[in-house]
Structure prediction request, 283 residues.
Amino acid sequence: MSEVLDQTRIEAPPAPVIVVRAHPLTRLARSLVFRRFIVLAVLALAWEIAARWQDNPIMLPSFTEAARAFIEASLNEGLLLSAVGSLFVLLKGYLLALVIAMVIVSLAVSNSFLRDALQTVAAMLNPLPAIALLPLALLWFGLGEKSLLFVLVNAVIWPFALAALQGFEGVPETHRLVGRNYGLKGPAYVWHILIPSALPSLISGMRVGWAFAWRTLIAAELVFGVSSSSGGLGWFIFRARNELFTDRVFAGLATVILIGLLVEAVVFRGLETLTVRRWGALR
Prediction:
């Protein structure tokens, strides 16, 4: 009887899958680009209101005046060329510091003495503002790009080295065992096991190092430019300040900020999306 019932039992159809799609406005509100645009628009509006209320263009030009100065300086006064020159110097110092730091950390993770030495030196030099080394750099290398590279390397190498060391030390033991089972040693072990496992910490250190390097470069260029008082965003801002073109000062500062936002949104978030977020290591 039970067999007959089993044969004649009518199975209920599967429940339909309902896909709920968010409204386009909801998706737009969740967009990081849209949210940042709203924040920038609110800041620009507050800036415009404060400037009009103060009514002193030399002390605080309005947002529209700074925007016009930005366009004019970009077209006629080489603002964009100054930005390119600064970024070129920054990129050289930044990459050099990353390479040096990775070599030091790779040696430190395999030797307790080198690890203690790295932590001691980093504890000494990391709190020291890199721009404080500029007088020493000028004494050793004179006016020019070498002095800038010296302070840039010091600005990047220590925060990145500490982040990389912390990331390497936090690699799970299972990942280390996989590398040993495959017979990986030396650079191959670092490249295939340590770096992928510690990539969130490495990207965080790269982000901090970039911020330190960018602010250090602009501060150093305020003194003598990219090479003997020529070029560079910092030098552009310094000249505008001497000539009391406050709108151009704000245009230069806005360029510094926009480059920072662009690097953060495109380079670092893009790198995270392609790696650690795609792998599920970050939310």
Remarks:
- The chain has two domains: 24-54, 63-278.
- Confidence is low (pLDDT under 50) at residues 4-9.
- Residues 203 and 271 are 8 Å apart (CA to CA).
- The chain is about 75% helix and 0% strand.
